[in-house]
Amino acid sequence: MALRLLKPLITSGSALPQYSYSSRTVVAVPFPRKPRIQVSSTTMATGSSASSVKIIDSHLHVWASPQEAAERHPYFPGQEPTLNGHVDFLLERMEEAGVDGALIVQPINHMFDHSLVTSVLKKYPSKFVGCCLANPAEDGSGVKQFEQLVIQDGYRAVRFNPALWASGQKMTNDVGKAIFSKAGELAVPVGFMCMKGLNLYISEIQELCTEFPSTVVLLDHLGFCKPPINDEESLTFSEMLKLSKFPQVYIKFSALFRLSRVSFPYQDLAPLLSQVVSTFGANRVMWGSDFPYVVPECGYRGGKEAVTSVANQVPLSASDLEWIMGKTVMQVFKSHWLA
């Protein structure tokens, strides 16, 4: 059975819910519940009335409005957005949800033109940190571009999207290794976006981590691993867990709507979160919304609240939840948001 992988790592005293995948709807026997953990930027369920722990979103995007795109920040041809991804809209949603800061990941809508995101980082230096997009051009020009984005424009992370590598090329080619190595030298984490399936790229990630152990890795969206329904998916999730042997690897528990097989609040992800926390530790796991894509799915606030709901099903301690909701990403980026 594919779900046998999940059973041993559930927190002691918790029963594994029984899932039926005969249809998209999943029926579960609830976990024994602890009192609900209420998380906010001012009260983090630590027993005190106020806490300095902040809520930080480790994964979201912003892009130009149509007017801005026409005037100064053009969209990449064929990548015109259909959602509102303007920073003003984001800031409103963050305030409503009680989120203090975020890591902005360069969107494909602007490809390697980082001017829009750079303008947002400069306008809100204490609110946002930037993750640029690696340009794997075969002439190596992307290595210099990456270095300039970090040194001159202040980007603090870089994203590897394997779909941008030339056909037949891997992220472990000369250009990929040059950028990955330079990221380690600059103390800049590398995020991996494995939308087509972690099984296609995990060997490349393992090779890069082995060869360049000083480079921090962020695995976006749980490696796009869904609750497994067959042996192949169980094996991929198991291989993802084995990345914990590399101490530089961190997991983004992000874009829950992309991972779950059921509707909000995505409680079929509880066994996966339990195993990830058991294997990596909560201090290597971080929440991310994937704004603005989360908005039509469950709303930005819903994307945040779903994590608490899933965590209560495991159940996780208040301390673990603090790490996932902000402390981990703050630790990776040297407490940038404490400024």
Rg, Cα atoms, Å: 19 Å
Spatial order of the strands in the main sheet?
Answer: 1-2-3-4-5-6-7-8
Percent range of helical residues: 25-40%
Specify the number of helices: 12
User: Can you summarize the main beta sheet?
Assistant: 8 strands, parallel
What structural keywords apply?
35% helix; 11% strand; alpha/beta; Amidohydro-rel; 339 residues; Amidohydrolase-related domain-containing protein; globular; 12 helices; single chain; disordered N terminus; decarboxylase; eight-stranded parallel sheet
Structure overview:
- This protein is 35% helix and 11% strand.
- It is built from twelve helices and eight strands.
- It has helices at residues 66-71, 87-97, 115-123, 141-151, 174-185, 202-211, 231-242, 256-259, 270-280, 295-298, 300-313, 318-332; strands at residues 56-60, 101-105, 128-133, 157-160, 190-192, 217-219, 249-254, 285-288.
- The protein has an eight-stranded parallel sheet.
- Strand 2 (101-105), helix 3 (115-123) and strand 3 (128-133) form a beta-alpha-beta unit.
- It is globular and about 45 Å long.
- The model is unreliable at 1-50 (pLDDT under 50).
Task: Offer a quick outline of the entry.
The chain has helices spanning 66-71, 87-97, 115-123, 141-151, 174-185, 202-211, 231-242, 256-259, 270-280, 295-298, 300-313, 318-332, and strands spanning 56-60, 101-105, 128-133, 157-160, 190-192, 217-219, 249-254, 285-288. The protein is α/β, with parallel strands linked by helices and 339 residues long. Strand 4 (157-160), helix 5 (174-185) and strand 5 form a beta-alpha-beta unit.
